[in-house]
Design goal:
There is one protein chain. The protein is an alpha+beta fold. The protein has one domain. The protein has 4 helices and 2 strands; from the N terminus they run H-E-H-E-H-H. It holds the Pfam family Abhydrolase_3. It comes from Linum tenue. InterPro entries: AB_hydrolase_3 (IPR013094), AB_hydrolase_fold (IPR029058), Carboxylest/Gibb_receptor (IPR050466).
Protein backbone atom coordinates (compact mmCIF):
# COMPACT_ATOMS: atom_id res chain seq x y z
CA UNK A 1 0.00 0.00 0.00
CA UNK A 2 2.75 2.48 0.96
CA UNK A 3 4.67 1.69 -2.22
CA UNK A 4 1.70 2.57 -4.44
CA UNK A 5 0.91 5.66 -2.38
CA UNK A 6 4.49 6.91 -2.60
CA UNK A 7 4.61 6.48 -6.38
CA UNK A 8 1.50 8.66 -6.59
CA UNK A 9 2.98 11.35 -4.31
CA UNK A 10 6.46 11.37 -5.82
CA UNK A 11 6.71 9.49 -9.10
CA UNK A 12 10.30 8.59 -9.91
CA UNK A 13 12.17 5.63 -11.32
CA UNK A 14 13.55 4.89 -7.82
CA UNK A 15 10.13 4.18 -6.31
CA UNK A 16 10.36 3.50 -2.59
CA UNK A 17 14.14 3.39 -2.85
CA UNK A 18 14.06 7.15 -3.30
CA UNK A 19 16.02 8.73 -0.41
CA UNK A 20 13.11 11.15 0.10
CA UNK A 21 11.12 8.27 1.61
CA UNK A 22 13.87 5.78 2.46
CA UNK A 23 16.93 7.37 4.10
CA UNK A 24 18.67 4.00 4.26
CA UNK A 25 19.31 3.36 0.57
CA UNK A 26 22.17 5.75 -0.13
CA UNK A 27 24.10 5.34 3.08
CA UNK A 28 24.46 1.59 3.36
CA UNK A 29 21.30 0.64 5.24
CA UNK A 30 21.20 3.67 7.52
CA UNK A 31 24.85 4.10 8.40
CA UNK A 32 24.58 7.79 7.47
CA UNK A 33 22.22 8.26 10.40
CA UNK A 34 25.17 8.20 12.79
CA UNK A 35 25.99 11.68 11.45
CA UNK A 36 22.58 13.07 12.41
CA UNK A 37 23.14 16.59 13.74
CA UNK A 38 20.76 16.50 16.69
CA UNK A 39 21.12 14.88 20.09
CA UNK A 40 17.53 13.71 20.60
CA UNK A 41 14.79 12.34 18.35
CA UNK A 42 11.23 11.26 19.07
CA UNK A 43 9.41 9.16 16.48
CA UNK A 44 5.62 9.31 16.88
CA UNK A 45 3.33 6.97 14.95
CA UNK A 46 -0.34 6.02 15.00
CA UNK A 47 -1.00 2.31 15.35
CA UNK A 48 -3.39 2.09 12.38
CA UNK A 49 -1.37 4.39 10.08
CA UNK A 50 -0.11 2.80 6.85
CA UNK A 51 3.19 4.62 7.49
CA UNK A 52 3.62 3.11 10.97
CA UNK A 53 6.10 0.48 9.81
CA UNK A 54 8.29 3.14 8.17
CA UNK A 55 8.35 5.11 11.41
CA UNK A 56 9.28 2.03 13.40
CA UNK A 57 11.98 1.12 10.87
CA UNK A 58 13.44 4.63 11.09
CA UNK A 59 13.58 4.39 14.87
CA UNK A 60 15.22 0.95 14.80
CA UNK A 61 17.78 1.94 12.17
CA UNK A 62 18.60 5.15 14.03
CA UNK A 63 19.14 3.34 17.32
CA UNK A 64 21.27 0.70 15.59
CA UNK A 65 23.31 3.12 13.50
CA UNK A 66 25.90 4.11 16.06
CA UNK A 67 24.33 7.55 16.47
CA UNK A 68 25.29 8.94 19.87
CA UNK A 69 21.96 10.60 20.67
CA UNK A 70 18.84 9.51 22.52
CA UNK A 71 15.85 8.21 20.55
CA UNK A 72 12.32 7.61 21.78
CA UNK A 73 9.42 5.83 20.12
CA UNK A 74 5.75 6.55 20.82
CA UNK A 75 2.99 4.53 19.19
CA UNK A 76 -0.69 5.24 19.76
CA UNK A 77 -2.73 2.07 19.27
CA UNK A 78 -6.02 2.15 17.41
CA UNK A 79 -5.51 5.54 15.79
CA UNK A 80 -4.82 6.56 12.19
CA UNK A 81 -2.64 9.10 10.40
CA UNK A 82 -2.88 12.67 11.83
CA UNK A 83 -5.55 11.66 14.35
CA UNK A 84 -4.13 14.22 16.77
CA UNK A 85 -4.93 17.00 14.29
CA UNK A 86 -8.38 15.70 13.35
CA UNK A 87 -9.37 14.90 16.96
CA UNK A 88 -7.13 17.08 19.15
CA UNK A 89 -9.45 16.69 22.16
CA UNK A 90 -9.42 12.89 22.30
CA UNK A 91 -7.51 11.33 25.19
CA UNK A 92 -4.93 9.71 22.91
CA UNK A 93 -4.12 13.07 21.29
CA UNK A 94 -3.77 14.69 24.71
CA UNK A 95 -1.34 11.93 25.68
CA UNK A 96 0.71 12.56 22.53
CA UNK A 97 0.74 16.33 23.16
CA UNK A 98 1.85 15.84 26.76
CA UNK A 99 4.61 13.45 25.71
CA UNK A 100 5.81 15.84 22.99
CA UNK A 101 5.79 18.73 25.47
CA UNK A 102 7.83 16.69 27.93
CA UNK A 103 10.23 15.70 25.16
CA UNK A 104 10.70 19.28 23.95
CA UNK A 105 11.21 20.46 27.53
CA UNK A 106 13.64 17.58 28.18
CA UNK A 107 11.51 16.16 30.99
CA UNK A 108 11.45 12.46 31.92
Amino acid sequence: MVDNWWLFVCPSEKGCDDPLINPFVEEGNGSGLQKLGCERVIVVVAGDDILKDRGRLYYEKLVGSGWKGKAEYLETEGKDHVFHIIQPDCEEAKTVFKRLGAFFNDEP
